[in-house]
Specification:
By secondary structure, the protein is mainly α. It has 6 helices and no strands. The chain is 59% helix and 0% strand. The protein starts with 10 loop residues before the first helix and ends in an 18-residue tail after the last helix.
Length: 159
């Protein structure tokens, strides 16, 4: 066919990218927020390389692809400091924004006629507070800030 280009990304290229990211994370350990997830991703990367080297056939190509996708997701979790539930929530929020657009506040101006007829109903309590009253109430209910956490070791043990 003229005018078309077929692009095939082999499993070996994806494995190379996963191994490269593994080495980047070993060189720059501050990139990793969750070590356990990182080690899981390393194990999945090694299994991808071994499956690609040993087996062939469509069934194993599908298995390798599933393991590679899982590895990428676990690397995202490890580097982003997210849990699986947090990542699912982020994907859901992104989907909703794509589907509906950004949530923008709607401002409805009050006309003078509405202000005049906006009398409190019987049994309804209306409080009026000045900005000074609001500031004082916030100061009373705001807890003091927590002491800073001591820095923790972000290096990855290599042995």
């Amino acid at each position: 066919m003229e005018g078309t280009v077929e692009v095939h990304i082999s499993a070996a290229l994806i494995n190379a990218a996963l191994v490269a990211f593994t080495f980047v994370c070993v060189i720059f350990p501050h990139l990793i927020k969750h070590k356990a997830q990182f080690y899981t991703a390393v194990a999945l990367t090694i299994s991808c390389v071994l499956l690609d080297a040993v087996f062939w056939g469509y069934f194993f190509h599908v298995i390798i692809a599933v393991v590679q996708v899982s590895t990428i997701l676990v690397f995202i979790l490890a580097a982003g400091g997210l849990s699986a539930r947090d990542l699912a929530g982020e994907f859901t929020n992104a989907y909703e924004v794509i589907r509906r657009g950004e949530d923008k506040p709607v401002v409805i101006p009050i006309t003078k006629k509405q202000e005049a007829t906006d009398q409190p109903e019987e049994g309804r309590v209306v409080y009026e507070a000045t900005p000074e009253d609001i500031r004082k109430a916030q100061e009373q209910t705001t807890p003091p800030p927590a002491p800073p956490k001591p820095p923790h070791d972000t290096s990855l043990p290599l042995s």
